[in-house]
Amino acid sequence: MNSALKKYFPIFAGPTILAFLIAFVVPFFMGLYLSFTKFKNLNNAKWVGGANYAAALRSESGFISALGFTTIVSIISIITVNIGAFTLAYLLTRKLKGTNFFRSVFFMPNLIGGIVLGFTWQVMLNAVLKYWGQTIVNDWRLGLAGLILLVNWQLMGYMMIIYIAGLQNVPPELTEAAQIDGAGKWMTLRNVTIPMIMPSITICLFLTLANTFKMFDQNLALTNGAPLKKTQMAALNIFDTMYVLRNQRGVAQAEAVIFFLIVSVIALIQLRLTRSKEVDA
C-alpha cells in the first residue's frame, strides 16, 4: 500500500502542489523581497533595505493607527460573534420547531459578498441615522458600530453551523450523568458542554480572528476610512498606500509583511491557548 501511494503521489498531489507554489509560495517570497525595495513595477525595483519598514511604522503612514482600529474591531467582533453564534446554536439544538428554517436564514448572510454587504448596511444605517442629522461617516464611533454590526450579521450564521456540529457530537450520556448528579443547566453547560466543544470554539475563534483582521471590502464599502481615515482598517490602509500613493508601493509591501506576521503570531497564540483546553471525547 505504501509503495502504491509513493508511486501515484506525484500524479495526484503534483498539480495541487504546483498550483500552491505558483499562487502562494512564489508570490510570498517575491513580496518579501519587494518590501526591501522601492519600485513601480517588478523590472525597476531598487534595493533600499529597511527604509520601507521604518516608513511603515512612522505615524504619518497611518498604518499603526489602522492596526489599532483593526484590533478594536477584531476584539469586539470575536467576542460578540462567538457568543451570539453559540447562543443561536444552543437554542437551535433544543429540538424546537422550524430549526432547519432558522439555520438556513442565519447562514444566508455569509453567502453575500463583502462589497454588497457594505453598501447595503451603509444605506440602512444612514436611513436610521438621518433622523439625528448623522451619517455613518460623521463620527468614527458610528463607523466602528456599523462595522461590528456588519461583521456579526455576516459571520454569526457561519460560526453557528460549526457550533451546532460540535454540540451535536457531545455524548448525551455525559449530560445525563451530570443531571443525575444534580448539576443544573448552567453547571452542565459550563463543566460538560463547553469543554467538549472546545475544538469547535478553537475553529470559530480562529476563523473570526482571520476574517476580521483581514477585512477589506466591507470596510471599503461601508466607510472607506472616513472620517479622516479614523475607521480605516489595516488591509484598506495597505491598499491605499499601494494604489493611491503610487510612489509608496515598497512601503505598502512592508506593511503587508508586518501585517502578515502580526496576524500569524496572534493566530498561533490563540490556537495554542484554545487547543490546550480541549479534552478527549
Automatic annotation (TrEMBL):
<dbReference type="GO" id="GO:0055085">
    <property type="term" value="P:transmembrane transport"/>
</dbReference>
<dbReference type="Pfam" id="PF00528">
    <property type="entry name" value="BPD_transp_1"/>
</dbReference>
<keyword id="KW-1003">Cell membrane</keyword>
<feature type="transmembrane region" description="Helical">
    <location>
        <begin position="12"/>
        <end position="36"/>
    </location>
</feature>
<keyword id="KW-0472">Membrane</keyword>
<dbReference type="GO" id="GO:0005886">
    <property type="term" value="C:plasma membrane"/>
</dbReference>
<comment type="similarity">
    <text>Belongs to the binding-protein-dependent transport system permease family.</text>
</comment>
<keyword id="KW-0813">Transport</keyword>
<dbReference type="InterPro" id="IPR035906">
    <property type="entry name" value="MetI-like_sf"/>
</dbReference>
<feature type="domain" description="ABC transmembrane type-1">
    <location>
        <begin position="67"/>
        <end position="270"/>
    </location>
</feature>
<feature type="transmembrane region" description="Helical">
    <location>
        <begin position="188"/>
        <end position="210"/>
    </location>
</feature>
<feature type="transmembrane region" description="Helical">
    <location>
        <begin position="250"/>
        <end position="269"/>
    </location>
</feature>
<dbReference type="InterPro" id="IPR051393">
    <property type="entry name" value="ABC_transporter_permease"/>
</dbReference>
<feature type="transmembrane region" description="Helical">
    <location>
        <begin position="104"/>
        <end position="124"/>
    </location>
</feature>
<feature type="transmembrane region" description="Helical">
    <location>
        <begin position="63"/>
        <end position="92"/>
    </location>
</feature>
<feature type="transmembrane region" description="Helical">
    <location>
        <begin position="144"/>
        <end position="167"/>
    </location>
</feature>
<dbReference type="InterPro" id="IPR000515">
    <property type="entry name" value="MetI-like"/>
</dbReference>
<keyword id="KW-0812">Transmembrane</keyword>
<protein>
    <submittedName>
        <fullName>Sugar ABC transporter permease</fullName>
    </submittedName>
</protein>
<keyword id="KW-1133">Transmembrane helix</keyword>
